[in-house]
Design brief:
Elements: E1 2-6, H1 21-32, E2 36-40, H2 42-65, E3 69-72, H3 81-90, E4 94-98, H4 102-113, E5 119-122, H5 128-133, E6 139-141, E7 160-165, H6 172-181, E8 186-189, H7 193-201, H8 210-217, H9 224-233, E9 234-239, H10 254-260, E10 265-268, E11 284-286, H11 289-301, H12 303-320, H13 323-333
Parallel strand pairs: 1-2, 1-3, 3-4, 4-5, 5-6, 7-8, 7-9, 9-10, 10-11
């Protein structure tokens, strides 16, 4: 299948941050499936040509390439919606967008963009009736997954008892504080953790430049490659499931990326997580921080149980939860395979 792939190549459009989540997972999977994929790095082009210029370039490439599918992963409002509507209305190319975070972005984002596309997908089952309420019927339910060509298990010895990778927001700093108070040395990486310390302790923070503050905030961030290494060398990988905006727990990419690397996953409960992993056999969940601490202590002391669950989660992801499988299922529903 000929695909025009319109998504950001770099993390948040910044080359210095390395490749984006969607590049590692969607683009690489599409190429690995054998499709003919042309890259349209819209964030880089938006920075150079602006919204209208970049949108005209997209429309021109669709005319020239004549793809079977235009696959997009929208970030914000970089495109001219009228251009997307015209491409869709012409009927020669199926247009599709994978929506992320419908748990909290449906009302002010997804519902406005969905009518522009032939099909869209959501990872939030509770949003299906919301799409239908606005008269949009071509919404497909899917879920996050992992690309096993990138998220891999390595034969390396453990270096950390407990680790967590993710941004510092919401109740996460308090959760980590409670872990440390319980004498659990959780190794934490992700944007913003060191800046939290500065905000608590620096008396003359207002004298720092914005650039310096940004540098501090990003100082605990790690690359995708470093993250995969950390999944492999941690006895227990925490997944704190609360969303960055609503605070409600949701299934995240981490739920699949950790076991894809052979890691043991201790995850916050999330709606329908049991549809993807068997609790206590392929994933272990917790409801409160106290319960998390109790389970950390139990599984650190019971190595065989921990390894068996990690192995079962690894096998489940490779069998059922790869992005190739997700994409193939979506393409079949769209009548493209």
């Amino acid at each position: 299948m000929k695909i025009l792939y319109a998504a950001s190549k770099f993390d948040y459009g910044i080359p210095a941050r390395g490749y984006s989540f969607e590049h590692y997972n969607f683009y690489d999977s599409l190429v690995g499936m054998g499709h003919e994929v042309e890259y349209f790095d819209f964030l880089t082009l938006h920075q150079e040509f602006g919204r209208d210029g970049m949108s005209r370039l997209l429309e021109q490439r669709v005319k020239e390439v004549r793809p079977d599918l235009m696959f997009t992963f929208l970030y914000k409002d970089e495109f001219d919606p009228a251009v997307i509507r015209r491409i869709t209305a012409q009927g020669r190319t199926t247009t599709f967008n994978w929506f992320a975070d419908d748990h909290w972005r449906f009302d002010d984002f997804s519902r406005l963009w969905a009518p522009c596309f032939t099909y869209v997908s959501t990872t939030d089952a509770d949003s299906l009736p919301k799409y239908r309420a606005i008269g949009y019927e071509r919404v497909l339910l899917t879920q996050w997954g992992a690309n096993p060509r990138f998220y891999v298990r390595k034969d390396v010895p453990p270096r950390y008892d407990v680790s967590f990778v993710g941004q510092s927001y919401g109740d996460r700093p308090e959760v980590v504080r409670q872990l440390h108070a319980a004498a659990i040395a959780a190794y934490v990486r992700g944007t913003g953790w060191k800046s939290r310390w500065w905000h608590r302790h620096a008396r003359r923070l207002h004298l720092m430049s914005a650039g310096r503050l940004q540098q501090i905030a990003g100082s605990t961030r790690i690359s995708q490659e470093e993250m995969i290494e950390l999944f492999n060398v941690s006895r227990i990988n925490l997944n704190l499931s609360a969303s960055s905006q609503s605070g409600a727990n949701q299934i995240k990419g981490r739920n699949f990326e950790i076991p894809a690397c052979g890691g043991f996953q201790l995850s916050g409960m999330a709606s329908r997580l049991e549809d993807f992993f068997v609790p206590d056999r392929e994933v272990v969940t917790y409801g409160t921080t106290r319960e998390m601490i109790e389970k950390i202590r139990f599984y650190l002391a019971h190595e065989d149980e921990r390894r068996n669950i990690a192995e079962a989660g690894y096998a489940r992801v490779l069998r059922d939860h790869t992005y190739e499988r997700r994409l193939r299922d979506l393409f079949q529903k769209m009548g493209l395979e």
